[in-house]
Amino acid sequence: MDFLSPDKHAPIPDDILRILEKRMISIEDRHACLSKALLEPGIASDELIKMNKELRKLDYSVDMIKALRAKEKEVIGLKELVKESVEDEEMRRLASGELQTATREVRDAQHDVLLKLIPKDEADSRGCILEASCLICFIYLLGAGGDEASIFASDLFKMYEKYAANNSWRFEVLSITTTDTRGYKEASAVISGDDVYGALKFESGVHRVQRVPVTEKAGRIHTSTASVAILPEANEVDVEIRNDEIKIDTYRAGGAGGQHVNTTCSAVRVTHAPTGIVVAIQDERSQHKNKAKALSILYARLYELERSRAAASRSELRQDQIGSSDRSERIRTYNFPQGRVTDHRVGVTQHSIEQIMEGIGLEIFVNALKMQHEASALASLKAAAA
């Protein structure tokens, strides 16, 4: 059984327990060192703030470790009691029952501490920027088209909107560029709430759909793809952008995909010269609102760019879960004729495609990908401790 199985009562392998013990001792020692250092006089105010912040972060882990240590002592005591109760059958029976319960509680606590100590992505607790765009559409044995790809991009965007609503997250549309078939050439939104990015970051990549489009008269199955990008929400605190690095152009909203046409220059195009990133927003009638939306997307893209570069310099771990940096990796297939959705990274298939497109059941993939990520992170932790 996997050591990160949903069954928390499952024993954790000895080699993992040894790593866990080393990590717990290290945390306990660091907590004690900081607690002692804070009692010393003459600490500079900035250093004092830094030490207190680190100590607060360690407090919860130390409390969990103390609870685990206490439960482990209880198990040792109950084992001794069972041994000593050879001639008292009733006492032995009671002690054995308590020992089984305490042993399960120890394993539960070990799993909890282990997951707590696995390195976390600091951006997980943030909201996110969702970007969806159509890519290509293939008709089996016939050639290429494009309408179905944009319709699929629209379906995915609406699926995430419904999933956000099911989780009581706030979903704010930033920009939508429609096509003649009412599909989405590209669309973006801000999703706000607790741990949104941590839940949705694994959705980045290429999603594939296989179905007979409503516009198909001959009943042929089309294969289309849409690209999804999930970026952690960011602002000027996370990313520094100098005024001379960006160019802001305004123009009249309208044209293909515009949600409205007006006679004022309300549309905004922001260009970041160092990276060449361009963000254009024309959905709002207010130039100020369009500029704010464009900048929020720019901050998110630059923040993710910095994070990707930092991650690449440390390891290639993130690529296993989130996909390639150019997001060209096909991560999931939605097969409507067979009524199934398959995530190719974890090999999980669900035969409830209609529900999933309504934002119901997507957490099955989210949870499976989280577990895979935790297992990979633990493997990395294990390798570092070797």
TrEMBL record:
Pfam families: PCRF, RF-1. Signal peptide: none annotated. Residues 252-268 form the Prokaryotic-type class I peptide chain release factors domain. InterPro entries: PCRF, Pep_chain_release_fac_I, Pep_chain_release_fac_I_sf, Prokaryotic/Mito_RF. GO terms for cellular component: cytoplasm. GO terms for molecular function: translation release factor activity. Belongs to the prokaryotic/mitochondrial release factor family. NCBIfam families: PRK00591.1 (NF001859). This is Prokaryotic-type class I peptide chain release factors domain-containing protein. The lineage of its organism: Eukaryota, Viridiplantae, Streptophyta, Embryophyta, Tracheophyta.
